[in-house]
Specification:
With 692 residues, the chain is of the alpha+beta class. It folds into 4 domains: 4-211, no CATH class; 235-327, Pdz3 Domain (Roll), CATH 2.30.42; 335-559 and 675-690, 2-enoyl-CoA Hydratase, Chain A, domain 1 (Alpha-Beta Complex); 580-666, no CATH class. The protein contains 21 helices and 21 strands. The strands form 5 sheets. Strands 3, 4, 5, 6, 7 and 8 form a 6-stranded antiparallel sheet that branches. Helix 6 (99-124) packs antiparallel against helix 8 (175-195), helix 14 packs parallel to helix 15 and helix 15 (410-418) runs parallel beside helix 16.
């Protein structure tokens, strides 16, 4: 009986329709672009695949999944409607016929419009959501299936609106304001839908097709190409974050080292941006917006303030939001520069000074280099200077911290490796024509030959993996941390008559012959990770190129670490058992993992509040457990914890148990290694012989 009023409202919406969306129509230029892209992919992409009936079948399924990944708009009969064309995409593409692609896209727009209009009518009416009912909603898109009929979809959307209202209320909004905000959200999505044009349709379809080759291949339409050029040149100010759409949310993929968000210190990968505000203006809800529109309002004038409302990646329930204020700026090269610090340790009466060099990116000031500026900045030159400074400070070994380093200049990855090994190959590159090049080589004697450890995590990618893999293959140093991202491919921009095609042209291989693709660099000693490897990393992406191997190339091996690893791991395990920061980290990761496992969410308000309170009690308990171990006074509330952590960040006093344990392992290694323990700079002409 409780569902009857809702069903009646939806019936009235159906009989008082707003009208269908205007169908989008492809042009001759779109047809020509599709044919051009198919030919370019067939000729130049690293992965060779035949565009045939099997490809067509995969494309149809992938297109439906890409348009509606949460399976909330299309119905199962919609799948049946286009089943007759399952094996016709290949022939149609070769002829530039986009009729079926546009028919599916237009149907999708109609389904969205119908649903949004229905939702708005419900929210504008007097329908009352019953938050006392014991019912749940499944928000796990991987376990959802296409809904059978409209009745099933109507009930799902009743629950989904109820869930959205609950989240808003539990994050602090009043009931009436939450309802109005949700109505505005749907109205804004309708406006966005009306603004779509045929270019959006063609880009959506072509990107799904390109994604069947690999996840890094995509079509940049003229409008998208403009945004791509802006992001590459950093000619507009923003927050310094890489964003992508996930369902209706804008998700942070990576924080750009040295950028405003990085300096602010709160935003992190996997956070979801749900609102944007300029200075002190009202927050604009951006759920359901197009990515380029969200990016447009985040950008702004240098030194202006933008406020973001986010759902932290650690808050899987989404009931708690945080507002973050960031001052817009360009990502300056000098703020991406490598930095150093010294960690002082004592073990069994022995003192040890570990020099830590943090490398946020592999950078090079190409403009200054072209102008023959003798002081141009680059990763390898900056690290060289830091090594000299650390030597003067009497360090006993060096840790190179590559956590969150998403890559950059391949030349600089090679040049950095050159500082630590004798002449020899650094990386192999196999191209689409199967030709293998080995030009990336270390060419001089090592600048530093003392104890070395490389620290990586899941966001260490591309050039970082080349460096870490080379150090590991040469036996030059130990690699510790978590398995890296696994991005071992190279992309190029191919010109098109309209826009550009970014495609994968080659693949990286280590000197051992193993690819860094998909598998990443596996550390010698593993640490726990906050990142969900099923969601973050190359292996989590559809159609990622596989790991494989080619012939190894001859290279020096400095040290065989295998006899040392058992003892090092034993010492590591003994030490972390009594480390309160390490134990806290493990407890925090366990809580986050527990939250991520939730697929069904209760829609009973009291139960939801209890779940939220219980989650906060658990966070408070593990924090106070750490404080008790340190003989510190416990916190009374989660608000007190948040205030304390905020102050720690401002004072740059946030504990980093992973970095400190890496320094301890470096101490253990130098104590056990048969190689020289002396940390020294190789005597040579310092910078002159290393001018790049």
């Amino acid at each position: 009986m409780k569902l009857l009023p809702f069903a009646i409202i939806l019936f009235l919406v159906a009989t008082t329709t707003y009208g269908k969306t205007e169908p989008l129509v492809f042009t001759k230029a779109h047809s020509k672009t599709a044919v051009e892209i198919i030919e370019t992919l067939s000729n130049k992409h690293y992965k060779k695949q035949v565009v045939d009936d099997r490809f067509s079948s995969r494309l149809l399924d992938a297109y439906f999944d890409a348009l509606d990944p949460a399976k909330v708009y299309f119905l199962k009969p919609d799948m049946t409607r286009f089943e007759s064309g399952r094996y016709s995409f290949d022939d149609a593409l070769e002829n530039g016929d986009l009729s079926q692609a546009f028919a599916i896209y237009n149907l999708f727009r109609d389904r969205i419009a119908d649903r949004l209009e229905s939702n708005i009518v419900v929210l504008e009416g007097d329908f009352s959501f019953d938050f006392s009912l014991e019912e749940t909603i499944n928000l796990d898109r991987d376990s959802r299936t296409w809904m059978e009929n409209t009745a099933e979809a109507d009930d799902y959307w009743r629950k989904r609106m109820k869930d959205s209202l609950l989240r808003l209320v539990l994050s602090g909004k009043e009931s009436d304001k939450a309802r109005e905000l949700l109505r505005k959200r749907y109205a804004n999505q309708l406006k966005q839908l009306a603004q779509q044009d045929a270019d959006d349709a063609i880009q959506s379809f072509i990107n799904v097709m390109a994604g069947l080759y690999d996840p890094h291949t995509s079509y940049l339409a003229p409008r998208t190409l403009e945004n791509f050029n802006i992001s590459m040149s950093l000619s507009l100010e923003g927050i310094g974050a890489v964003l992508q759409l996930e369902d209706e949310f804008t998700k942070i993929v990576r924080i750009v080292p040295g950028g405003p968000a990085d300096k602010q210190g709160v935003l992190a990968a996997e956070d979801k941006i749900i609102g944007v505000a300029q200075n002190d203006e009202a927050m604009v809800d951006v759920i359901g917006w197009r990515l380029d529109d969200v990016v447009a309002i985040i950008r702004g004038k240098k030194d202006s303030r933008v406020r973001l409302e986010i759902i932290p990646g650690t808050s899987e329930g989404g009931d708690k939001t945080t507002t973050v204020a960031i001052i817009r700026d360009k990502v300056k090269l000098e703020e991406q520069a490598a930095k150093s610090e010294i960690i002082e340790l004592q073990q069994d009466g022995q003192e040890f000074r570990a020099g830590v060099i943090t490398v946020p990116a592999f950078y090079m000031d190409f403009e200054a280099y072209r102008k023959r500026d003798p002081d141009f900045k680059s990763t390898s030159r900056d690290v060289m200077k830091l090594i000299i400074d650390l030597k003067k400070d009497g360090v006993d070994g060096i840790v190179l911290d590559l956590r969150n380093n998403g890559g950059g200049s391949l030349y600089e990855a090679t040049a950095l490796t050159d500082l630590f090994i004798h002449p020899g190959p650094v990386v192999q590159i196999r191209h689409a024509d199967q030709r293998v090049s080995r030009e990336q080589r270390a060419r001089q004697r090592p600048f530093y030959d003392g104890p070395l450890m490389v620290l990586i995590n899941r966001l260490s990618a591309s050039a970082s993996e080349i460096f870490a893999g080379a150090i590991q293959d040469y036996g030059r140093g130990l690699v510790v941390g978590t398995t890296s991202f696994g991005k071992g491919t190279v992309q190029v921009l191919a010109p098109l008559e309209q826009g550009r095609l970014k495609l994968t042209e080659s693949k990286f291989y280590r000197v051992s012959g193993q690819s860094t693709q998909h598998r990443g660099v596996i550390p010698d000693i593993s640490f726990p990770s906050y990142f969900n490897t099923e969601e973050v990393g190359e292996s989590s992406q559809d159609n990622a190129l596989p790991w494989d191997s080619i012939r190894a190339v001859k290279h020096r091996e400095y040290e065989d670490f295998s006899p040392l690893l058992l003892d090092l791991k034993t010492q590591h395990q003994q030490r972390i058992e009594s480390n309160p920061d390490w134990r806290f980290m493990l407890n925090e990761i366990a809580l986050i993992t527990e939250q991520r496992a939730l697929k069904e969410f209760t829609l009973n308000k009291s139960s939801r509040e209890q779940t939220k309170d219980e989650r906060e009690r658990k966070w408070l308990a593990i924090e106070n457990k750490r404080r008790k171990t340190r003989s510190e006074a416990p916190f009374e509330s989660t608000e007190a914890v948040e205030a304390f952590r905020k102050q720690q960040k401002e004072d740059e006093q946030t504990p980093d148990p992973i970095l400190r344990e890496t320094a301890n392992l470096l101490f253990d290694y130098t104590s056990a290694s048969t190689t020289s323990l002396e940390t020294r700079v190789v005597k040579k002409g310092l910078f002159n012989s290393y001018s790049q």
